[in-house]
Recover the amino acids of this structure.
């Protein structure tokens, strides 16, 4: 083989190597973003369950216009997306925290918090370690 052919082979190997590294980085970034979205979605589902509990009368197993006594159902406290916990519910609010399974850019797990408040029924989400 001539020098030109060897140079083209080396150049081809370098380009393929760079493409593989870029692909791996894109895959990791997508996994982090996907996990963050999944954790927020799970927290929104928990907020909806808390709203249902708040609105349901005590005689039917609800909170009777209070978040006090609400607990996360056992199947939803830990999912493939992360683990979830609830703060102590009061008559007007409850806070849920979710910790994702993926590590963020700084090496720590993705954490999201949602605060469910009334009145009016409103939720606010805060994400840390994106």
């Amino acid at each position: 083989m001539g020098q030109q052919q060897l140079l083209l082979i080396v150049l081809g190997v370098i380009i393929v190597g760079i493409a593989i590294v870029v692909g791996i980085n894109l895959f990791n970034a997508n996994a982090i973003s996907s996990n963050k979205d999944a954790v927020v979605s799970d927290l929104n589902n928990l907020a909806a369950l808390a709203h249902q509990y708040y609105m349901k009368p005590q005689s039917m197993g609800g909170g009777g216009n209070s978040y006090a006594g609400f607990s996360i159902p056992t199947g939803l406290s830990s999912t493939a997306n992360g683990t979830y916990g609830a703060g102590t519910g009061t008559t007007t609010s409850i806070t849920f925290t979710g910790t994702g399974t993926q590590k963020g850019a700084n090496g720590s797990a993705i954490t999201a918090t949602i605060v469910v408040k009334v009145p009016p029924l409103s939720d606010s989400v805060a994400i840390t370690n994106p």
Notes: The chain has a mean pLDDT of 89.
